[in-house]
Design a protein that fits this description.
Strand order of the largest sheet: 3-4-5
Largest sheet: 3 strands, antiparallel
Structural class: alpha+beta
Order of helices and strands: HHEEHEEE
Distance between the termini: 76 Å
Low-confidence stretches: none
Number of strands: 5
Mean pLDDT: 77
Number of helices: 3
Number of domains: 2
Length: 148
């Protein structure tokens, strides 16, 4: 049966208290017969104390080992490779690559509108095949249209 470290610590404290009581009794008692019995009792207390300390140390080691095993199990698995995604819109015999449309919008932002690429926070593109065009909204306020 495995005891908690706090219980073992309490047992150790009780053993130490008993050892102190025996030591005090030996010092106070002068009779030789009693001293011999007290000496045997001291040896027994010392053996019990050493055994309790050993048990506590083993329990601490087991607890630490269990925590190490749990920590090892919670490690994340190796990072998975990112999935490659490509979006194409096909209509009326044409094919438009969505990434190319987004790149065109970014180019409009930097070249035509003379803004910095760092200022580009949000790009929304709406491809509308029936109009043969793509509508865009940049940072929520700049709008435009691209012919496909």
């Amino acid at each position: 049966m495995v005891k908690k470290a706090s219980e073992k610590a309490a047992e150790t404290a009780v053993v130490k208290e008993a050892a102190k009581t025996v030591e005090t009794t030996v010092k106070e008692t002068k009779a030789p017969v009693v001293a011999a019995k007290v000496e045997k009792a001291e040896k027994a207390v010392k053996a019990v104390k050493e055994s309790a300390e050993k048990t506590v140390k083993e329990a601490v080691k087991k607890t630490a080992a269990k925590k190490t095993v749990k920590a090892a199990k919670t490690e994340k698995p190796a990072a998975k490779a990112e999935t490659t995604t490509a979006v194409y819109v096909q209509f009326w015999g044409k094919e438009v690559y969505a990434k190319d449309v987004v790149e065109q919008v970014k180019k409009i932002w930097t070249d035509e509108l003379k803004n910095k690429a760092e200022d580009l926070k949000d790009v929304k593109v709406y491809i509308k095949p029936e109009d043969n065009s793509a509508y865009y909204v940049i940072n929520g306020d700049v709008t435009g249209i691209i012919e496909l």
